[in-house]
Amino acid sequence: MKNEDIVFNNLADVPELTISIKGLTNDGFFQKKNYSAIFGIDGGQDISPEISWNNAPAGTKSFVVTMYDPDAPTESGFWHWSIKDIPATVTTLFENAGDIKSDVLPDKAIAMPMDARMNRYVGAAPARGDEPHPYHIVVTALDVDVLDVSPDSTPAFMNFNMIGHELARGSKIVYAQL
């Protein structure tokens, strides 16, 4: 069984958000600009894609967006992006919202540290020659305005603290390969 089939097996069963991601290739891969310059990928620019969602249930007070590669060459995969406290009135993260120096991240939203401990989007960086890696982009609707975790929390710890607050979730898999 591939990792893309088992990533969410242990999560609460909640209604599904509909997610769309702009700017992918026709076969569902990231564009080169979405790959990681920080991790040395030629042509990479660490530009996060535009992500939109809808169908949030009544009672939604905030959203969390994450991006995770379960096939990274570690025992635990790799979190590339993590944003919490996105206001319930927001239904789109525009392109490059993952760059905290840009003015694209919605007010009140907090870019959390990803696995390289940077508070930003770090693009896809699969090992050269690997099969395509499935990058899980997940949007979760929560029943709290502010998820009560320290701003230096890991994405895994943040996800653990969402238990009991999840109202809906949607995910899309986007692929990357070198």
Automatic annotation (TrEMBL):
What InterPro entries would the database entry show? PEBP, PEBP-like_sf, YbhB_YbcL/LppC-like
Q: Which NCBIfam families match?
A: YbhB/YbcL family Raf kinase inhibitor-like protein (TIGR00481)
The entry's protein name is YbhB/YbcL family Raf kinase inhibitor-like protein
Species source reads Leuconostoc citreum
| Lineage summary | Bacteria, Bacillati, Bacillota, Bacilli, Lactobacillales
